[in-house]
Amino acid sequence: MKALLKKNVESSVYSFTMTELNDPYFDPNWHFHPHYQLFSVFEGEGTRFIGDDIRHFEPGDTVFLGPNLPHLWRSDKNYFEGNNQLKTRGIVIYFTEDFLGKDFFEKPEMYSLKQLLANSFRGMDIKGEMRTYLRESMQNLLQENGFDCVLKLLEILNKLSHSNDFEYITSLGYVNTHKVSETERMQKVHEYVMKHFKQEIRLNEVASLAGMSEAAFCRYFKNRTNKTFSDFVSGVRIGHACKLLLADRMTVLQICYESGFNTVSNFNRQFKTITGKTPVTYQKEYLQASNKIEV
Predict the structure, then answer these.
(1) What is the pTM assigned to this prediction?
(2) First vs last Cα of the chain: how many Å apart?
(3) In this structure, are residues 208 and 22 in contact, taking their beta carbons and an 8 Å threshold?
(4) Which superfamily does 197-294 belong to?
(5) DSSP strand E in 156-264: where?
(6) CB under 8 Å to 40, separation ≥6 — which residues?
(7) Quick one: how many helices (H) and strands (E) in the chain?
(8) CATH 1.10.10.60 residue ranges in the chain?
(9) Which of 106, 206, 241, 249 has the greatest number of C-beta atoms within 10 Å?
(10) Rounded alpha-carbon distances, angstroms, from residue 128 to 116, 125, 176, 203, 240
């Protein structure tokens, strides 16, 4: 499948685009577009790539992204195997900064919204009560039309602009340096890693896939993603490990090898570097939080 790094989501009729996604799997192409994007996952699991951030996603995952921030919600492998019992569902809203006029967000009354748009350039991972509010509001917005639809979107953005229930997604120094002409090369690398991360991944094989020498590929990848290729692979493996830990069906030792690590010590070290917690602590905190929610 040819990748579409630059995606066209413009509506030819309305001032902004709102879509409910119902598919066997989410768009498998790594891409970016000149629109702000509010997206929430209602069904489906996999690995989420946003800028230089990699992590597991599941229902509830809700983000607000600024323009031209590369992203991909890569559904797990079993979603591509024709299992009719598996499907993905999400709601996404796209809009440009001038969707209500060139200087709309420059008005003094729009200061908080202007700051929200600025924050979104690093990507915002929405948490807590604001996540619940956004998910309910986005579902309700699907039923609106005309002027009421625009008012409801502004209300959503206004509430989000006054909330601290979020974490930045990309690192502080991240800048998108990708070019549309590089689409296929980066897509091939993503797909190769997602298919082989449980095995040993040889740098020379990936560099050859990208049509580069090892040294050139390492420079290219670091420049484009703000991280080394080795860190990228570790991020994918840890994202998979997080999913297995949350499922609570395997031991930490089993998860270590199932995620592509050769030693438990390296697994624990990489896991803490990326998540800030040990695998056991990560799992314990999640299970405790889940039990509180159920009560």
Answers:
(1) 0.73
(2) 45
(3) no
(4) Homeodomain-like (1.10.10.60)
(5) 166-168
(6) 60, 61, 62, 63, 90, 91, 92, 131, 134, 135, 138
(7) 10, 9
(8) 197-294
(9) 241
(10) 18, 10, 28, 40, 23
Token pair belonging to 156: 């959503």
Question: Among candidates 55, 103, 65, 97, which has minimal Cα distance to 245?
Answer: 55
Is the separation of the CB atoms in 100 and 16 below 8 Å? no
Longest dimension (CA), the chain: 58
The residues near 119 (Cβ < 8 Å, ≥ 6 apart) are 166, 168
pLDDT in tens, 202-233: 999 999 988 899 999 999 888 888 789 999 99
Token readout for 126 is 């929405």
Each residue's pLDDT tens digit, 35-76: 999 999 999 999 999 988 888 999 999 999 999 888 989 999
CB of 64 closer than 8 Å to CB of 91: no
Chain position carrying tokens 């929200």: 116
17-168: CATH topology: Jelly Rolls (2.60.120)
By C-alpha distance, which of 256, 257, 255, 260 is closest to 244?
A: 255
Side by side, the strands of the sheet bearing 53-57 are: 53-57, 46-50, 71-75
Helix-strand-coil percent breakdown of the chain, rounded to 5?
50, 20, 35
Where in the sequence of the chain do the CATH 2.60.120.280 domains occur? Answer: 17-168
Neighbours of 114 (CB within 10 A): 16
Question: How far is the C-alpha of 155 from the C-alpha of 152, rounded, in Å?
Answer: 5
